[in-house]
Amino acid sequence: MFSLQELCSVVEVLDRGGRQDLPIRGIHYDSRRVEPGFLFVAIPGFRTDGHFFLRDAAERGAVAAVIQKEAPLPPGMSWIKVENSRKALADLAAYFYGYPSRRLRLFGVTGTNGKTTTTYLIEGILNSAGCATGLLGTVTNRLGGRVLTTEHTTPESLDLQKILAWMADNGAKAVVMEVSSHALSLDRVRGTEFDVAVFTNLTQDHLDFHLTMEDYFNAKAKLFTSLKEGHKPGYKYAVINCDDVWGQRLITLTKVPVITYGLNTAAMVRAENIQLRSTGTLLEVVCDGKRYTLQLKLVGQFNVYNVLAAWAVGWQEGIEPPLLADILSQLEGAPGRFEKVDAGQDFMVIVDYAHTPDGLENVLKTARQVTPGRVIVVFGCGGDRDRTKRPLMGEAAARLSDFCIITSDNPRSEDPEAIIKDILPGVQRVKDRDYMVEVDRRLAIARALEMARAGDTVVIAGKGHETYQVIGDKVLPFDDREVAREELRRLGWER
Q1: Residue ranges of the chain whose pLDDT lies below 50
Q2: 386 with 206: CB under 8 angstroms?
Q3: Residues 252 and 170 in one domain
């Protein structure tokens, strides 16, 4: 247990008041989760401000607070004033939990698309090679069979340090984690020492937050520019997709060795002789002057890139290529990523998390390549997110499908019909393309399955692994995979 003064020795204190020798039992940034003896860190948020909840934190037992601006403090509460309480939270959390990243080999994967599948593949490689490895990301946080919950792709800094400490204490030797641009911008990974950074690609997304692609890129680049010698031994390196123009820029920014991958002949790890099939992918990996044949369960060229990134990591971690090829040939994809729903029907049903123009285009191109019949797509766009990508997704859906059904995704606080109105100009730019609007997502899925015939593919895009739909302030149960199975049973298909 630390005293307030000792704990705050890791932050730059502008001012302080009250007793500084108080013992601190824990830290939190959410006043509802404060316990007796805690330090409450007041963070200005996007919807509210932690400085409004100082009294609530005190009533729940907080003995001290970190603040970044003047605010009425409850009588008797000690306080520390800093310039940026969000950064202070990250520094305090890392110190409080003993800098757990220094006890782990830490792999960070960032990019617009492919992060989840790439982390799953790297985790699978390392575990199969005998290195106990944890996973943190969009779908799940887990170590072995034990699962932890979180609300973000990359947890808030306090939650991240707690999870990393738990994993290190429970036998993990390595952790693979998705690192979002929000996390990098909001200092959630501050105080976390990475050993390896992996870049998948950069395409339009999150411009409601970053405003420009340059800002979006600069956020991602932080993971690579901060990758350098630290407090632990071991080889540090970056793995970068050199087919991506933003990836080419990243190569010039990082100070550690770079391993490139892609389909480009200049890539250090590249794929050749790719054969895409509905049941998987056959390819050759060219690495270090030698060729290795892989028969993958994963479908699509976008997954070839994910496999190459994972191969590059495994190779650099000293895993022999023949073993790498064997492991990768056995691995499944991540839930909700080109996931098939099979009830014995004579057409293919795919559920995918694609929620960006590039992600949707990749999925539909793959569906087209493995579909003898028509491609039918059901998709929408999330509310309270980047509006500029909506017509782009509409155009991609119309151009690459034979029929598209525009519906709701997670509308959140927006009117679903208003979101669809933003999508339609993109759809209508594609001449002679059939489409329909069905605001109710279940009915939209049902309509797509009803019109599918033998040899067709129905792609249900946008939500992937999610088991809920956010409408207004309500979080309602909704799983595209389960809804598709229920509707297939209604149509008489049942394996």
Answers
A1: none
A2: yes
A3: yes
| Entry pTM | 0.93
Q: Is 188 part of any domain? A: yes
- ∠ CA 109-113-446 to the nearest 5 degrees? 135
Radius of gyration of the chain (CA): 24
Do 254 and 311 have their domain in common? yes
- Is-contact 318 469, C-beta < 8 A? no
What's the DSSP call for residue 17? E
Q: Note whether 348 and 307 are same-domain residues.
A: no
Pairwise CA distance, residues 413 & 163, whole Å: 31
The whole-angstrom separation of Cα 19 and Cα 16 is 9
- Of the candidates 315, 201, 304, the residue with the CA atom closest to the CA atom of residue 247: 201
- Pair 107, 78 in one domain: no
The total of structural domains in the chain comes to: 3
What is the pLDDT, as a whole number, of residue 150?
A: 67
Cβ-Cβ contacts under 8 Å for 337 (sequence gap 6 or more): 116, 117, 352, 353, 464, 465
Closest CA to 42 of 24, 68, 70: 68
Residue 133 sits in the same domain as residue 195: yes
> Which pLDDT score is estimated for 265?
86
Instruction: Give the structural domain span for 431.
Output: 339-490
- For 114-140, give one letter per residue: b (16+ CB within 10 A) or e: bbbbbbbbbbbbbbbbeeebbbbbbbb
d(CA 64, CA 78): 4
User: How confident is the model at residue 21, as a pLDDT?
Assistant: 96
The pLDDT score that the predictor gives to residue 450 is 98
